[in-house]
Design goal:
Blueprint (H helix, E strand, L loop, with lengths): L9 E5 L4 H11 L6 E5 L5 E5 L7 E5 L6 H17 L4 E6 L18 H12 L3 E5 L14 E4 L2 H10 L6 E5 L5 H11 L3 E10 L2 E8 L6 E9 L3 H12 L4 E9 L5 H7 L4 E5 L13 E4 L2 H12 L11 H8 L1
Parallel strand pairs: 1-4, 4-5, 5-6, 6-7, 8-9, 8-11, 11-12, 12-13, 13-14
Antiparallel strand pairs: 2-3, 9-10
Helix pairs in contact: 1-8, 4-5
Length: 328
């Protein structure tokens, strides 16, 4: 029997991007999902109707802005506006995946900073807080002038690899220099060394492996990134690690974007497993036996309860085994 959460002023609503994850989050909190309908007018415009009173409530909206990113983003913005006009006490946006996050700075003249634009839109629509998971660039937190709680998927991924016995003789691989901090965090959980793939990217979604910095011979290599998009970097890196003598190669990422040729590349790659979270819902055509999903529902549910109770979310930055060690 599910235990009901004591605070009747807390309500959770799910939009269309990832309803299965939203249900897991609601179950973890101990509340029922709120009643909302998301429809389309005949010309494709989005129509949202909140089918219960939310006056004075602390509302949490679950929506990843994954593909179709523009539709999901507009759903979110319209929902925020509807909540504000219905007198919600607070509007908390839970974004397991933040779309447009890769456009976080200008790399060429006359380029937009779309991650900042999206932040402005969410804030101006009326959001009071954002709860995000593994933003592509940490500075996106500073694009908002409202509180942003930024959770990490590394503790959950670490739990998976420890449970599977992969942590022994493991090396955590950063697929580029920019991901070293992320790789080091996972390595700390696994008590493993790190290595770095030195690559260059001549254009978007095209990567060329240059060199591997670190010892991987005879090791179980875990390549960690925040997302897997077209899987070009991951599959090229996996082959390079095998060529350097790695015994097994795993890929790990929080966000399974899996666009374009990603599934075909992963299927043909030497990767033993591809471990991702359910921050993005995977349709059947994007599922493979080697793709393993870890749910972020309990993590986000715990974060929602802590935020609602004005408690810190910092304990959620530890994995299960670290928490057990602290308790002992």
């Amino acid at each position: 029997m599910k235990q009901r959460y004591f605070d009747d002023r807390l309500k959770i609503f799910a939009l269309n991007s990832n309803r299965p994850l939203a249900q897991k989050i609601a179950d973890a909190v101990g509340v029922q999902l709120g009643k909302v309908s998301v429809d389309r007018f005949s010309d494709g415009e989005i129509q949202i109707n909140i089918e219960e009173s939310i006056r004075g409530d602390n509302v949490y909206v679950i929506q990843s802005t994954s593909a179709p990113v523009n539709d999901n983003l507009m759903e979110l913005l319209i929902m925020i506006d509807a909540l504000r006009r219905a007198s919600a006490h607070s509007i908390n946006v839970v974004m397991p995946y933040y779309g447009y996050a890769r456009q976080d700075r200008k790399t060429r003249s006359r380029e937009p900073i779309t991650a900042k634009l999206v932040a402005n839109m969410i804030q101006n629509a009326g959001a009071d807080r954002v709860l995000a998971l593994d933003l592509h660039a940490a500075q996106i937190q500073g694009f908002f002038d409202i509180p942003v709680d930024h959770l990490m998927g590394a503790p959950l991924l670490a739990d998976y690899f420890i449970d599977q016995g992969v942590a022994k003789d493991a090396v955590v691989i950063s697929p580029d220099h920019g991901g070293v901090t992320r790789a080091r965090r996972l390595a700390e959980f696994l008590k493993a060394p790190i290595a770095i793939i030195d690559k260059r990217r001549p254009k978007a979604n095209v990567a060329q492996i240059m060199n591997i910095i670190g010892d991987v011979k005879g090791k179980k290599c875990i390549m960690l990134d925040d997302m897997i998009d077209t899987a070009g970097t991951i599959t090229l890196g996996a082959q390079a690690l095998i060529d350097q003598g790695a015994s097994e190669v795993y890929a790990a990422a929080t966000h399974a974007v899996f666009s374009g040729p990603a599934i075909e590349r992963l299927a043909k790659s030497p990767l033993k497993e591809v471990v991702v979270t359910d921050s993005i819902q995977l349709p059947k055509e994007k599922q493979l036996p080697k793709i393993k999903q870890v749910s972020v529902g309990p993590l986000l549910g715990s974060a929602i309860k802590r935020i609602n109770e004005n408690r810190p979310v910092s304990p959620l930055f530890k994995n299960r085994f670290t928490q057990m060690a602290d308790e002992n």
